[in-house]
Amino acid sequence: MNKCKQIIDAAHAANPAAFGNVASILYITLKVRPVLLTADILANPDLLLDVPDYQLIGLRTDSDNTHVVGIKGDGIVTYPYSWCVTDAAEATGYRCQEIGPWDCYDELATPPTGQTFVQCCNDIKAKTGHLMPDMHGNYLDCYNSPPPLENLEDPLDLGRVYLHIDANNRVVHPPYNG
C-alpha cells in the first residue's frame, strides 16, 4: 500500500490539477472481503468464518439512497460465496450451493425503478428462507452498500483517493479519486 501511495503522491506532484489542486491527498482505505473460491468453500466451509460478515448481502442503492440499483444499475444483486447448510444425508455432514442472483428491479412501479432496500432484502430472505440457518448458525441479512460517488451526501472531491486493500494491506483494485 505504501508503494501505491508513493506513486499517487508523485502523480499529484506532477499534476496537482488532476487532484483538485489540493495541498495533500486524503487517502481513504477500505478493506475488501476476501475472495474465496467455490471449490475451497466446498472443501472447507469453515473458511467462511474468516470473513466476519459473510452472511451479509450488499445492496447497492441509488444516489438518493432510496432504491436498490445493483452494481450495474440493473437491479441485480449477487452474493459472492457459496452458502453451506447442515445436511445429515451428505457424507461431509453439509451441503453447499450458490445462491442468487436476485432481481430487485420493480417493473410495476411508476416509473419502473429499483425496489426499496427493505423490499429487496425481504424478497431475498423469502427466496432463501429454506436455507436458514447455515451450518454456522447464521442467517442471511442485508447491508446498504455505499451509493455511487458524487451524490449529495458524498460530493466529488478529487483530493480524496480510495484504496481498496485486503487483509494483508495489499491494494487489490485500481485506486480512484473522487
Summary, kept brief:
The chain is built from 3 helices and 11 strands; from the N terminus they run αβαβββββββαβββ.
Summing up helix and strand content along with how strands pair, one would put the structural category as alpha/beta
Strand ordering within the main sheet: 1-10-11
Separation of the first and last Cα atoms: 19 Å
Shape: flat
Quaternary structure of the protein? single chain
Element pattern in H and E:
HEHEEEEEEEHEEE
Kindly report the average pLDDT value: 87
- Number of helices in the DSSP assignment: 3
How many distinct beta strands? 11
DSSP strand content: 15-25%
Ordered list of secondary-structure elements with their pairings:
Layout: H1 2-14, E1 26-31, H2 38-43, E2 56-60, E3 76-77, E4 82-86, E5 94-98, E6 102-103, E7 105-106, E8 113-114, H3 117-128, E9 141-145, E10 160-165, E11 176-177
Parallel strand pairs: 1-10, 2-9
Antiparallel strand pairs: 3-6, 4-5, 7-8, 10-11
How would you describe the overall organization of this protein?
The structure is a single chain. The protein is α/β, with parallel strands linked by helices and 178 residues long. 17% of the residues lie in helices and 24% in strands. The chain is built from 3 helices and 11 strands; from the N terminus they run αβαβββββββαβββ. It has a 3-stranded mixed sheet, with no helix packed on it. A hairpin with a 6-residue loop joins β7 and β8. It is flat, with a radius of gyration of 20 Å. The two termini are 19 Å apart.
